Amino acid sequence: MDSIPSTPGKFKMEKSPYSPFRHRFHSSVAKLLFISLLFLAVFLLFLIKPPPSPSLSNPTEARRNLHSTTWGGQAWEKRVRSSSRPKPHRSKPLIVLVTGAAGFVGSHVSAALKRRGDGVLGLDNFNHYYDVSLKRARQSLLNSQGVFIVEGDINDSSLLRKLFDVAAFTHILHLAAQAGVRYAMENPSSYIDSNVAGFVSLLEVCKSANPQPAIVWASSSSVYGLNTEVPFSESDRTDRPASLYAATKKAGEEIAHTYNHIYGLSITGLRFFTVYGPWGRPDMAYFFFTKDILQGKTIPIFEGPNHGTVARDFTYIDDIVKGCLGSLDTAEKSTGTGGKKRGPAQLRIFNLGNTSPVPVKDLVSILERLLKVKAKKTIIKMPRNGDVPFTHANISLAQRELGYKPTTDLQTGLKKFVKWYLGYYKDVEGKLAF
Ligand SMILES: O=C(O)[C@H]1O[C@H](OP(=O)(O)OP(=O)(O)OC[C@H]2O[C@@H](n3ccc(=O)[nH]c3=O)[C@H](O)[C@@H]2O)[C@H](O)[C@@H](O)[C@@H]1O
């Protein structure tokens, strides 16, 4: 007890000629040790921290991360070149950059273009809006057919410029977009990012390209919004969108007008009407109804005001592919060079529908028959989520100008979809794996 001083100041150090130095030495070593440990800790933290992964809950964040996807290098350029090279037998080949190539429509049109010998390069950001493994499966299929999909975002202008440096695109088929009507209430900014900013970013690069490509892009039947004229014609009012999704597609149509007017870009907009079929989008009703019916879950069928029928002009994917090819084949050249317009350029808009609307409850009856399962249904009032009660395309313009003629009715198209669905989701033991 006696050796412990009552107050710290009274503690007497053992006398030594080296003691002051030794004290400083000890404290320096301690500092050095502390700093080294700190460095080591930071280094270890850096090592074990996982790389930023696209977040499932925030697709905008996911999209931002995807901007940093690596691209470039000799091997990459070689793949870009080889995918964009048309087959030697093809006369007057197109060289097409397909944005959204891992998507539903994009994958089908890319395959069709490649089949007939055109050069095709895909671009897709593989965002997490719906099951990415389905996009990867489409990518593998395209890869086996010689179509390379570059991983990147349409908002990445330096990537787009690089692609134009490597390949001389004659056409752009622009299908990359934030799709879905109802999701716009959940994530409005993703619609602005892709459908407005992304489209402008692409057009900016196209306008400066030399030669400028012709552009064909996906608008939507949803631009008709609260239009009551039936069937919907291209000349009908489209200034009353019912959803933010529709508003961004309508904005795209106006933006297309501007770039055509100022820079001489040849632009064709396609108003797709509820496209369905094999390799489709899991966020669409026919797709998740199938899944839910098979899982015994109740499906909500929307009804309009006063128990009115909700109907869609469901259009089969193969018919849409023909419409896209017809648009690419009839697209005239852009007229600008070096970012300057040299003369008037083509500006078109077409409905691509099926011309025979089917009530959603009939869609469900067809699915029940094909799946041989009675669906559990609940009829609910259509929520105020941007949906419109019906769509019905007048396709006479596309028929005249593109030779577009849909040939698949809903029953036939759904049969092909169900066959694909059961095959795709069947696991090795033959059970359905969702
Ligand atoms: O034609 C178009 O422009 C649009 O077509 C579809 O949009 P939508 O027609 O609403 O397709 P679904 O979401 O598959 O809905 C089909 C029908 O099912 C109805 N529905 C949807 C969901 C649900 O739970 N219950 C239900 O009855 C909808 O009201 C609609 O009438 C696509 O999702 C859009 O990306 C596309 O642009």
Automatic annotation (TrEMBL):
Family according to the record: Belongs to the NAD(P)-dependent epimerase/dehydratase family.
Domain NAD-dependent epimerase/dehydratase: 96-332
Entry GO MF terms: racemase and epimerase activity; UDP-glucuronate 4-epimerase activity
Name of this protein: UDP-glucuronate 4-epimerase
A Pfam family matched in the record: Epimerase
EC class: isomerase
Keyword field: Isomerase, Membrane, NAD, Transmembrane, Transmembrane helix
Reactions catalysed, as given in the entry: UDP-alpha-D-glucuronate = UDP-alpha-D-galacturonate
UniProt main location, coarse: Golgi
Species: Amborella trichopoda
Compartments where located: Golgi apparatus, Golgi stack membrane
A GO term from the CC aspect: Golgi cisterna membrane
EC number: 5.1.3.6
Membrane topology listed for this record: Multi-pass membrane protein
Residues that span the membrane, as ranges: 29-48
